[in-house]
Each structure stands twice: as structure tokens, then as C-alpha cells.
Amino acid sequence: MGKVVRVRDIHVCERKVAEGEKETCSMRSLRKTLLLALVASAVLVLAVLHSWPTRVYRTVDVRYRPGPGAERLLEERLPDPDPSASTIPYRVREGVARLLARNVCVCEGESKGFNLPFAQLLFPRVSAHPLHTAFQPSQLHEMKRRRAKEYQSFQMRSQSPTDLLIVAEANSPLQYPTQGVEVRPLKTILIPGLALKDLPRDVYSVNFSASLGTFNVAAEVEGVKVRGDGEMHMTLSSSFLPSLNRQLQFITYTNTLFHPSTADTVQLETEGHQALFTIKIRHGVTPKLYNTGSDTDQEYNISALVTIATKTFLRYDKLQDLIDSIRRFYPTVTIVIADDSEHPKAVSGPYIEHYIMPFGKGWFAGRNLAVSQVTTKYVLWVDDDFIFTANTKLEKLVNVLEKTTLDLVGGAVREATGYTATYRQTISIEAGEEDGDCLHMRRGFHHIIQGFPRCVVTDGVINFFLARTDKVQQVGFDPRLARVAHLARTKGVRQWLPEAVVLERGFRWDGELAAVLLGREFFIDGLGSLHVGSCDDVIVNHATKIKLPWGQSESDKKYAKFRYPPASSDATHTKNGLLYFKNRFQCLTHN
Prior knowledge:
By secondary structure, the chain is α+β, with helices and mostly antiparallel strands. Among the domains are: about 165-280, Immunoglobulin-like; about 300-490 and about 515-590, Spore Coat Polysaccharide Biosynthesis Protein SpsA, Chain A (Alpha-Beta Complex), CATH 3.90.550.10. The protein contains 15 helices and 26 strands. The longest helix is centred in the N-terminal third of the chain and has 27 residues, at about 25-50. The N and C termini lie far apart (about 110 Å).
């Protein structure tokens, strides 16, 4: 029968054990040691937690809203018309005045002229298309309401305090930076260029106010009084102007409210004068660099710089012709293929990546997939029925992108008839009211690129272009636009028609409608972020589609069934609906 033994010292334990009693003295001693260790650890943890600097997290409204003082002050400082000038007569220059934005736009097409063969090709006429017709009349009111709500949300996300109009007063004694002041989130900078010009007064003072950060001084100047340092409102005062200006050289701004990309409007004030300037708050742009191997001034390593991407559907014979033609000139360039055929066939070979998609997923979805797998600096987009020739000099396109600020440069496509097309387009947006903006597209370009006489700057190009991979990935392709984005038909497309001319009776050649329908959405989404060029001396051939109806294979017929949907199909309505809702356009004009 066990006994409870009180252990006073080690000798008692040893004696009891020696007497044959089975006592666990050593176990009890170990437990006591562990208990003391736990208590000591708990005390140590509490001490560390007590001394640990705690960070107080604030709740911050990250919606765009300028500081209340800044907005009010800006409204007060917007110049009112001089009353004395209201009686002075003036004469409007219509040629200049009509260039001003009126925020009211309409889309008007040109009346039809003579119905002659090839008239639209030789004398392109502007046509207008309302986009709200993509929706049923019963749906239109709700669609407008949802679009207005989404547009308001978009404006809140995209607007910045740097968008506010700031008008400098005449003859202000305040000197301050007008642009170029930038701070990283939650970091500190010196504000450059601050000074107060000579004014006769007993005491000179300057007040600072901000809404997203605090002011302080990096150094103290004798004879200058500083109040509110470390706060959003700070005042400097001195009876000696040179001392005050010396102190102004050490003013710091610290961003205290985190936002990855915004701006703070700083109010600067002295007696009788006010000024405003912005400090941009944003992270620096993280570079995305590509290691292209050794550099040589003589030639470019195309295999290290360029990946060729294409999307295929059913036409494996033409795809193989494309691959064979590429390998004649660029045997080691990687080719990425996106394939949404119903029954995919293996496409293999050195430097070929073949990605299978769900059946009929669409052309834009295939573009996204192909471009997402590109790891080189540049991606060359080609159709699966193109043929490389000796005139397909990718080195020329690479040279243009390497030596200019362009993000994308298109080439030219030569049809079987010998017609060579670049399909350069200029895109402009005219501001509208609640119904949306007006989209205008015209054939042409803006100007020739210095140093590259065969190249121009434009807004949209043909379906053969070399682009910076990261920029294409940034803009992306809307997967809701399926094959109709590549080629639709009006009143039925006939395969045996030539491929680069628009005929009057509704039949269209492949190339023209590709430029209008396919290139449109991508370049519209990229307007403002893509710097686009076009060179007509880099040419790829287009495999002929001139086939008589009885000469078409089963593959051709199946391809045509999916490739050329009627203009009244759901796909066409989807395209127009996206332009109406996603891009907030009410109408489109083009020639």
C-alpha cells in the first residue's frame, strides 16, 4: 500500500528507497523544476509583451475625396471673370472654337454616294452605329442605371487629387514646387524650393496644412519659432526673413495615411496670400527586366528576345505551314499555340508549346492564354494562316521597339492578290453626357517616326504586331469576345471573295473587317496606355482563302461555320453591348 512521503532532503529519499519503499522522489523533484521553469517563462513573456511597442491601427476611408479645406480653397480661388471685361466686345473664331470639347457628342455618318464597285475602298465613307441597340428596349433603362453606377465607381477609383485644377495667383510672394514632389507611402521627404520673398513687415510667418501627412523640420534655425511640428498643420515665424527662408529649406513631409497611389494637396499660406501644390504619394515603379543574354551592337538575338504566339482552330494544315515558314528563318524561336479545337491534334516539335483549351472558347481567350505563357521581352502575334517570307524581318521590329518609346509596332500583311495592308487606325473619344461618349475610328496615322521613315505612330494596327510582353499582358484581351471579334459578316461572307476589299453590297474581305472588329477592342482598351506604331517594310504573307464553294474541304466548311457568324447573332450583340456598357460608348463612327 503506497504512502505519501514528504521529501525534506535527498538523504531522506535515499533512505526510504533503501528501506524498500517505492517512492518516486526523483519524479517529484523534476515536476517541481518544470513548474518553476513554466512560471519563469510566463513572467518573461508578460514582460516582453509589456515592453513591446504596440502599433495602433486606424480606420481610414480609402475612397477618393479631396481634403475639405483643399476643395473649398480651390473653389474660392478659381478666377471669376473680371467684371470690367464683361462689356468689352469680342469675335469668336469658329475654326478654333469648334475644336473645344463641349461634352456633348453625336455620331453622324456620311450619306451614301454612288454605288460603284470598290467605291468604299477608294473613297471610304464614314458610317455611324448606335450601340444601345444591342439591348432590348425593355432592358435599356436598367442597363443605363447599372452603367451609371459602375461609371461612378470607376471615377472614384481612377481620380486623384492631382486631377484638381490649381490656378496660381498673380505676384504671390510664396515660392513653392509646382510639380515633381513625390514620396513613397509612409515615408519622409524634404520639400524642395520653399521660400518667402521680401515683404516689409515686422514678423514673417508661413503656415502649412495637409490631409494625408505631417510636417516637421529636419534642422532648427535660430530665431525661427516652429509650432505644430509633427502635425498636419505647422507654422513658422521669424522677425528675420533670411532665417525664415533658411528654415524653409529643412521642411519635411511624412505620409501618415497609407495609400499605394494618391496625392496630398498642401496648402501654403502667408499673410494675404495662399498657394497649393501636390505631393504625389506612390510606390516607385518596380522594374520588370528581361535577361536576353550577351549584348552585341551588330545584331539581335531574336530567340532570346521574341516569342511567337498564335491561336488556332481546326486549321492544322495552315498552322503547320506557318510553323514550317517560321523555321526557315528562325529555327530556335519559341512558338506558343493556343488551341480550342473540338478534337485537338498533337502539334509537336522543338521550341513549340501547344496549349489545349475548352472547345470553342474563343479567339480573345486564346490570345490571353498564349500571351500569359510568354517569358521573353517581346511577343509577336500572328494568325495561324500567315506565312513567313524573306521580308518578315523581325529584327527590324525589334530595333524599333528597342530604340523608341513605342510599346507595340505592327507590320504589313500581303494577300494572295498582292495587296499589302497595314490597317493603321486613329482612335479618338469625344466626351458625351449621360448617354456616354462617342468613339471615332479613322484610317490613318499621326506622324512619321524620326529615324524610321517607313514607320508611323498610330492607335491601331493589323493583326501582325510585335509588342512588349508586359504591356500586352497589362491591357489583356476580353475573353467575352469570341470569334466575332476576328471576322463577322454582313449579309453573308463568301469564301471565294478576295480578302482585303469591302464591297458595297455588304460582302467584306477578311483583312478589312479584321481591322475594324478584331483590332478595335484591344486597341480601345489600350488607348492611353499603349504607344502604338506601324512599319510597312516588315511583311508577312496571308494564306489564300480564295476558294470556290465546290472546292472547299469538310474542314473548311466546318471552320467557316464557326468563323463567320451572321451579323445578327448573339456574338455581335455581345460585342456592341460591351462597347456600350464596359467602355461607356453610346455610338461608333468609322470609315
